[in-house]
Amino acid sequence: MNIEYRENRELKKEDLQHLKNTLLEQLKDYIPYNEQEERDRAFIIDFINNNANAFVRDNNVAHMTASAWIVNKAHDKVLMCYHKIYDSWSWLGGHADGDTNLLNVAIREAKEESGIKNIRAVSDDIFSVEVLTVDGHVKKGKYVSSHLHLNVTYLLEADEDEELTAKEDENLGVRWFTVEEALKASTEPWFVKNVYSKLIEKQK
Q: How many CA atoms lie within 13 Å of 200's alpha carbon, on the beta-carbon side?
């Protein structure tokens, strides 16, 4: 069920519930890649089932996010942005903010953060799942306490010849890297070992 982000804001409560149920079914059907994904998938499913506000930032313990692992047409490069808060080159993505169609969230955030207009899903299926820790930080002049991002990742594709534009309030730049360069560019060792290396292996 592919519904544009703008339309999701106008959906009835029962439609949003249907999309949430669809995501839960996708998570249940998803085959974990490793033990990290097996445990994190179970955590995310349980959290959604037991927290009505799992998709909004009002839940300051944990909330849903969607990430975009963006490859070029040859699938030998990945798109990354230099994230201000994490002070590192990283994948693209963001908060669900009430939207239960996480594929649309990933595409929306990818477009906003990169300036690329034409981004498509390689598959509507979930590409990976992660429970991520976020240290306390200041955002837009306000302190945000440490919390968890319950993250679903999608594999997206874009044309590397499209013009790139940084989203100035969030990142300092956007660029394509070879997969080898991407691992070296990130200054977050945990992400390199547990997330980016995994995604590169899975895209082969």
A: 19
Confirm if 96 and 56 have CB atoms less than 8 A apart. Answer: yes
**Residue 4's pLDDT is what?**
43
Query: What pLDDT score does 5 carry?
Result: 39
Give me the long-range contacts of 18-27 (CB less than 8 A, separation at least 24): 19/100, 19/101, 20/48, 20/55, 20/100, 23/48, 23/100, 23/101, 23/102, 23/152, 24/48, 24/49, 26/125, 26/126, 27/126, 27/129, 27/152
Q: What beta strand segments (E) does the chain contain? A: 62-71, 77-83, 88-90, 92-95, 119-121, 128-134, 137-139, 142-144, 147-158, 171-178
Residue 42: closest CA among 133, 131, 147: 131
pLDDT, residue 15, reads: 66
Residue 170 contacts residue 114 (beta carbons within 8 Å): no
Q: Which segments of the chain have a pLDDT < 70?
A: 1-15
